[in-house]
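Quick one, tokens below:
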């Protein structure tokens, strides 16, 4: 796994700084997130912090609603949807016509599942480290679901995919970054393996996009899903699907809606013609409040720059890991910095109690089975996680 070329020099400068003076060149953005006036926030992998920019975009939407009501649809709000498709495309290095908007990843998977032909190819391959939304989509269906287990709780070897993916496989669905360990998966290699067997590859990038550079064309995957909830700072209720035109054209969803209709405003109940591009995977009217919150989040992410965000987050993550190890903890993380993201799993006997105690002390983190999960991001500083560790171990 290689670092983005823009990441390396920033990362090197941060790590070259003396540990007690680790400098974050993006720390100026911290004042745009009011939560830091009250708490130490280290839970971006669950929910990105609310920015002043997102709040401002939402306030603007509410003012428009109050002032003009539905008249906004014909110019302002329709343009906001197209702006979001364009900007989501930039996050993934995709074209606007390759992007579909949705309210949730579960909804996206349901639409894809409704159009995927599993009559001859009945196998769906996923892993035990993926967010359960991936297998949940397929378990109720008349298909064979193969869930690959991890030997170390951190990653799944490519060899396991090689053994499972065969001529009966319709889809390989797995994560770019595992929510269970923060490990960055080599999804290009997974996609190549799927394609050699004639299968499609779907990547859940919810824990990746925003905190690491993503180029869906370079990754050569067929579907890529992500959204605003976490690292893209858009909150809940807005997600996106990238659909590769060359390989997904035959997937025609049966679960659909009027936003998938290319003659949307004909209002003809007897005729349905799906869009020729990724919008055929859309369903109903997007939640405009969430759309505007996401546009505000992207104002920050784009201005800070994803390569720089990756560099800063990597340096903070490495400092957190080293500080935890120096205090006798054994973080469950990938083997090398290039394979790690801004998710650090700290093994604990009672993580739920730890999280509650930390919350009472002003620290916001999360728990997963057997671990306290800590996720530094570009708006954090090293003192955040160092103070957290002191509080965590002061029991």
């Amino acid at each position: 796994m290689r670092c983005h070329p823009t990441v390396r020099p920033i990362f090197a400068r941060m790590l070259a700084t003396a540990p007690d003076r680790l400098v974050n060149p993006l720390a100026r953005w911290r004042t745009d997130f009011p939560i830091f006036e009250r708490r130490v926030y280290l839970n971006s992998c669950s929910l990105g912090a609310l920015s002043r920019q997102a709040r401002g975009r939402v306030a603007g939407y509410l003012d428009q609603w109050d002032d003009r009501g539905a008249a906004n649809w014909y110019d302002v709000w329709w343009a906001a949807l197209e702006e979001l498709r364009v900007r989501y495309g930039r996050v993934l290095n995709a074209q606007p016509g390759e992007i579909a908007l949705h309210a949730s990843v579960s909804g996206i998977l349901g639409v894809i599942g409704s159009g995927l032909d599993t009559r001859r190819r009945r196998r769906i391959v996923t892993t035990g480290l993926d967010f359960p939304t991936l297998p949940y989509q397929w378990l109720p269906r008349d298909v064979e679901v193969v869930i690959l287990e991890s030997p170390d709780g951190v990653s799944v070897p490519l060899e396991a995919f090689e053994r499972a993916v065969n001529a009966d496989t319709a889809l390989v669905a797995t994560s770019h970054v595992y929510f269970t360990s923060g490990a960055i998966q080599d999804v290009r290699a997974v996609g190549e393996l799927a394609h050699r067997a004639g299968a499609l590859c779907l990547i859940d990038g919810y824990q990746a996009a925003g905190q690491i550079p993503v180029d869906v064309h370079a990754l050569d995957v067929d579907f890529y899903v992500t959204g605003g909830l976490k690292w893209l700072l858009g909150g809940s209720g807005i997600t996106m699907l990238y659909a590769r035109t060359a390989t997904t054209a035959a997937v025609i969803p049966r679960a659909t809606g009027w936003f998938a209709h290319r003659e949307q405003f004909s209002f003809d109940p007897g005729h349905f013609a799906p869009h020729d591009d990724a919008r055929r995977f859309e369903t109903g009217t997007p939640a405009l409040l969430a759309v505007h919150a996401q546009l505000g989040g992207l104002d920050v992410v784009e201005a800070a720059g994803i390569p720089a965000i990756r560099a800063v987050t990597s340096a903070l993550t490495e400092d957190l890991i080293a500080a935890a190890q120096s205090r006798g903890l054994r973080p469950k993380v990938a083997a090398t910095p290039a394979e790690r993201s801004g998710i650090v799993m700290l093994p604990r006997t009672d993580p739920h109690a730890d999280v509650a105690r930390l919350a009472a002390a002003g620290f916001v983190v999360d728990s997963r089975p057997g671990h306290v999960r800590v996720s530094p991001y570009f708006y954090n500083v090293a003192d955040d996680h160092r103070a957290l560790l002191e509080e965590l171990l002061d029991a």
